[in-house]
Amino acid sequence: MKTVYERPKCLKDRHFHYCPGCGHGVIHKLIAEIIDELGIQDRTVGVAPVGCAVFAYWYYDVDFSQAAHGRAPAVATGIKRAKPDSIVFSYQGDGDLAAIGTAEIIHAANRGENITVIFVNNAIYGMTGGQMAPTTLVGQKASTAPYGRNPENEGYPIKVCELLSTLRGTTYLERTAITTPGSIIQTKKAIKKAFQNQLDGKGFSLVEVLSQCPTNWGMKPTDGTKFIKEQMMPVFPLGVYKDLSDEKGGSK
């Protein structure tokens, strides 16, 4: 029989532990495919902080470092500066990157660190019990906002791509989703470009991926993609928010 698809070489032969309907498995697979296609497995170093991303090192056959909550960009910066030939990426959720790690992501981006950031936005704290995150939608219920997010008390959802696009140091920012086959293909293209930018020495790249968390959203997995399309996308529109890849030359 003709082989149609094989597990990426840098993805270990293990079952994912994520909840049914969770998007992390899809995103993991895309990253692994890209590492294989670029031929950078022996040079890649991942950084995973606290949250559902914390066990990423169980699944990738590449070097990995665990970071304290929110500190992945700082750790990635240190690794990249110490070993500039390495391809360094952080894998972070919204509670991690947009809350506890706000300072780290803003300053790494503003410095134009030559790293790649994969930012998974599911509008909730996942691992720790469904608390309200900086990206939780107005009116969306969470364990710490049982009546729904109220802007008068908790403010509005933080839009990371829009925020980072104002910083001079950023090179490439795109928001994608994994709701349809087409959006998954676009997400892979975006992530691959972010890695290629690092290979070319063009500076800081971040790809934000709108992803499902049916368990903490309190819905069936089949309703997760519908929630992203109908509720999240109007607040977090998909698209390229900044792309200076063609303007920035590579480092020597």
From TrEMBL:
It comes from the Bacteria. Keywords: Oxidoreductase. GO terms for molecular function: oxidoreductase activity, acting on the aldehyde or oxo group of donors, iron-sulfur protein as acceptor; thiamine pyrophosphate binding. This is 2-oxoglutarate oxidoreductase. InterPro entries: 2-oxoacid:Fd_oxidoreductase, THDP-binding, TPP_enzyme_TPP-bd. Residues 65-209 form the Thiamine pyrophosphate enzyme TPP-binding domain. GO terms for biological process: cellular respiration. Pfam families: TPP_enzyme_C.
